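hi! just following up on the protien thing from before. the input was this:
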Amino acid sequence: MKLPFGLFVFAVAVIVATWWWLGRTVEMPPSPLGQGEKLQCASYAPFRRDQNPFDLNLHVEAAQIDDDLARLANVQLYPGMPVEVMILGHERTVADYLLGPINRTFSRGMREN
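and the predicted 3d structure came back as:
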């Protein structure tokens, strides 16, 4: 009876220690930007001033999408950081949020190219 309990306590200790290690504070290098200086980059969010991405009843009209694409027609895109788009088609459970990143990592990591 002592061995299974000891193994359980050891497993819990390893899990807690791993989560503590993963959640520790990481020292960041100083910013190369001066005080108040802005980074020269482009960011695009397809929401207008009166729209909110958290509004579940938001419906974007096709004319707005066409207008956005016309505004972006002259924007030059360069390779860099990958983008992931999630289209929510169903409700997600807590397990989806916890196991989703692990599943995506395995599905992406197990490819040859």
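The two ends are 49 Å apart (CA to CA).
The chain has a mean pLDDT of 79.
cheers
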